[in-house]
Amino acid sequence: MEIGYQPGITFIVVQKRHHTRLFCADRKDQMGKSGNIPAGTTVDQVITHPTEFDFYLCSHAGIQGTSRPSHYHVLWDDNQ
């Protein structure tokens, strides 16, 4: 690294305990018997806050029951 290098900082709070569940709009996109959304599904419109930077991410496949995506709140982002 160069002397004086100032990397950008990003602060993100991840919320796991919430009541939001995501479901596929089309049944052919469902995964397994439980009908969960595919791993990697990201939602950043419609159900998110209108003025804050937040999104939902289902980072892994659900093994049992309904998948619960994590809710990410970006508090500070120097990298925009």
From TrEMBL:
Domain named Piwi: which ranges? 1-80
This entry's Gene Ontology molecular function terms read:
nucleic acid binding
Q: What is this protein called?
A: Piwi domain-containing protein
Organism lineage string? Eukaryota, Metazoa, Spiralia, Lophotrochozoa, Platyhelminthes
